[in-house]
Every structure is written in structure tokens, then in C-alpha cells.
Amino acid sequence: MAVLTGAGVSAESGIPTFRDNNGLWRQFRAEQLATPEAFANDPELVWEWYDWRREIIAAAQPNAGHLALVEIERRVPHFTLITQNVDDLHERAGSRNVIHLHGSIFVQRCLRCSRESSGPRPPKCVCGGMLRPGVVWFGEALPPEPRFAAEDAVRESDLLLVIGTSGVVYPAAGLVYMAKRVVEINPSSTPLSSRMDERLEGPSGEILPRLIA
Ligand code: NAD
Ligand code: ZN
Fold first, then answer.
1. Tens digits of per-residue pLDDT, 173-188?
2. Which ligand is in closest contact with the Cα of 140?
3. Which ligand 1 atom is nearest residue 19's CA?
4. Structural domains in the chain, sorted by start
5. Ligand 1: which residue has its CA nearest to atom 26?
6. In angstroms, rounded to a whole number, what is the distance separating the alpha carbons of residues 70 and 82?
7. What pTM was computed for the model?
């Protein structure tokens, strides 16, 4: 079994999604900040936004949806959790086999030497280069390793659960078309809904525990 999660699975932990109403920071939309162009134009602004998001995520706790996925992993023989999230709530809940398609918000990467570090952000890399967030931005390619691992896991699984994703960010959303059977858990319908074998409508923090029960 494989699971694909998006920002919605962390919404009940108080972490804003990108496309729901609470997704704005100051007057900006995520698409105006999570891009290489935005960073080139105003790196300090983009870093301010990431620092703000880091603080929210660090203070947040896993919710009933994250915990239910840990329980499912315990019960299912082959289980892969693929997440588009840059937070660490799946790991903090106790999930083990987790693939991060879009990196981690707690990592920074040097624009000059590509060295990555995690933890508090220093002003510059040890080489003197400028640091950027270690995440995948809109318009950037996914790192090949997690991408291929995710595709393999989906193809080898008899079921893909798609949880809390708007389904508009590719190639992550494309995983749905590689699955044998797909079930969507989301309070709203998405462009992927018509492809689903089944839809469970509601917040993942309520639906997932019920699924186990
Ligand atoms: P999105 O913001 O585009 O969409 C969120 C989806 O979650 C919507 O379809 C919404 O209906 C659904 N949702 C809202 N509340 C929910 C709930 N309680 N239970 C289940 N579903 C709920 O998010 P996305 O599809 O993940 O894509 C945007 C990009 O945003 C990703 O690449 C990701 O890296 C990034 N992102 C990550 C985080 C995070 O790490 N927590 C937060 C915001 C954005
Ligand atoms: Zn460097």
C-alpha cells in the first residue's frame, strides 16, 4: 500500500496549506514566494516567509491523521508514505518509510557549492555562498531519487491513498495515474477526484482514524 499526502494532512495541526483560505502570508500567495524567481528578486523576503513557516511547523504537533497513518504502517506488510509536505510531522508521529518529494523546510542548501545543512540558518554557507531553502519550488524539477522511489512504490502497491492534496502540483499528482486503485481523502473535490475509485469526504484527522476502526 502507498499513501500520498499533501498540505491538508497537516492542516489540523495548524499548519497553513497553500490553497485554502488561510494560505496567505501578508498579502502574498504561495505561488509568488515559492519560486526561484521570487528568491532571485528578494531573497530576504522569501527567507522571512520560510522562517515564519519553520516556526509554525516547529511548534505544531502531529494530529490524529498522522497518527492513524503510523498505525496503518504497523498493520500493512508493504507500506510507503510519499509526502509533498516539507514539514516533519509524519516522522514525529512515528512513520518510518517516508519519502519527501519536495524536501525539508528545516534544510538549507548553498547556491554555490550545493552543501546542505539542517538546523538554525547561518547567514552564509561555510564556503561564503548564499543559502536557499532546501525545498523544491514551483517550476523546479523533483530530485530524481525520491521521485523514482515513489513511482516504484505506487506501481507495486494494490492501493494508493491520496490525502489532503489539491492535486495540481505535478509530477506528484501524476502518481495517481500509476496506481492500480486510488482512494481520495479530502473535504473538497480536486481535479484528481474524477480519477478516483472512491472518495472519502472530510478532514483526514477524522476520516483516517475511522478507517482503522
Ligand atoms: P494545497 O495547499 O495545494 O492543497 C491542500 C489540500 O488539502 C486541498 O485540496 C484541501 O481541500 C485539502 N485539505 C484541507 N484541509 C484538510 C484536512 N483537514 N484534511 C484533508 N485534506 C484537507 O497543498 P498540496 O496539494 O500539498 O500542494 C502544495 C505544495 O505545498 C506542496 O508542494 C507542499 O510542498 C507545499 N506545502 C507544504 C506544507 C507542509 O509541509 N505542511 C504546507 C503548505 C504547503
Ligand atoms: Zn557553499
1. 999 999 999 999 999 9
2. 1
3. 2
4. 2-212 (3.40.50.1220)
5. 6
6. 13
7. 0.97
